[in-house]
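Thread title: Can someone regenerate the structure for this chain?

I was given the following input by a collaborator and told the matching structure tokens would be attached. They weren't. Posting the sequence so someone can regenerate them.
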Amino acid sequence: MNKRVIDDTEGATFDLLYADLNNDNIKDLLVTYNKPANGTVFVYEFAGDPRSSKIEKNLIFSGLDPAKSGVGKGAPGGVKLAWPNTRYRIFQTRLLIFDR
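Best answer:
Regenerated them for you:
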């Protein structure tokens, strides 16, 4: 398989991150959809192999509006993850969303 459509209902993707967000040893897909109004952040959880397994879509944030309007001013911006303890990633993951 060369490609798989995960979600074609939200519009253009701004940023994404492929990482194990819930410590189940299966990587998840964190996606920001940058929009002029009501930007959103979703996590897509895979039940196993991302090429073929069931996917659960989870809304993390919605209603994110940019501080300024105009081209390139949508919200949210990029996304990064931070763990309170980098040696053992067994604690709650912190999600950081940046305004461009």
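The two ends are 34 Å apart (CA to CA).
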